[in-house]
Write a structure and sequence with these properties.
alpha/beta
Length: 159
């Protein structure tokens, strides 16, 4: 947004900034993503102490969910075995599809309680993982072109 490369931004766990106008927020939970045959896939929800028994494929620090994960691990006695970091959710999903690793993604991007392309997700049931906002924002004072306005309306309806 700040580099004028995009008109709208959809960010999970956005940090407050005076130069952004928040257009909409929808609370989302962070979910554990795993292969549909994973031992934890049989559970309705998971705890982090169960997840860290397996290798972890984490979103990289540029993504909002990573700050939540890092904060949780810093406050807990759990020791994650991180085997992969990526800023691509598609890469993380492809990686966990083929082994017993677990990744994490925002609820809107995960197939909670159903299988999609060999991958499923489970809600993380921890008080330390409250729902965080998925925020649609634009640069303050920037006028949106008509296609962006129409996309904004569609996105509001979808979310």
């Amino acid at each position: 947004l700040r580099a004028f490369e995009a008109d709208l931004g959809l960010v999970y766990n956005v940090q407050p900034a005076g130069d952004l106008t928040l257009l909409m927020q929808v609370e989302q939970r962070l979910c554990a993503v795993m292969a549909d045959g994973h031992p934890l896939a049989a559970q309705v929800s998971v705890k982090m102490r169960d997840c860290v028994r397996f290798p972890l494929a984490l979103p990289d620090p540029s993504l909002g969910g990573r700050a939540i994960l890092d904060g949780f691990f810093a406050r807990s006695s759990l020791q994650p075995n991180v085997v992969l970091e990526s800023n691509s959710f598609e890469m993380l999903r492809n990686y966990v599809r083929g082994n017993d690793a677990i990744s994490f993604q925002v609820q809107v991007g995960t197939p909670l309680a159903r299988v999609q392309d060999g991958v499923t997700a489970r809600a993380i049931e921890e008080r330390a993982f409250p729902r965080q906002p998925l925020t649609l924002a634009q640069l303050k004072g920037r006028h949106l072109p008509q296609p962006a306005v129409r996309f904004l309306a569609s996105l509001r309806d979808a979310l």
